[in-house]
Amino acid sequence: MRRIASLALASLLALPAYSASVWKVSDGENTMYLGGTLHILSPQDYPLPEEYKTAYSQSDALVFETDIAALSTPEFAQKSLQMLTYGEGGSLKDDVSDDTLKQLETHLAARGVPVDRFMNLRPALVGISLSMIEFQRLGLTSQGVDKYYYTLGMGDGKAMHYLESPEQQLTFISKMGEGNEDAYVSYAIEDVKRMPEMLGDLKDDWREGDMASFYALSMEEFADEYPDIYDLLLTSRNNNWMPVLTDLMTTPETEFVLVGAMHIPGDTGLITQLKAKGYSVEQMK
Question: pTM of this prediction?
Answer without folding.
Answer: 0.88
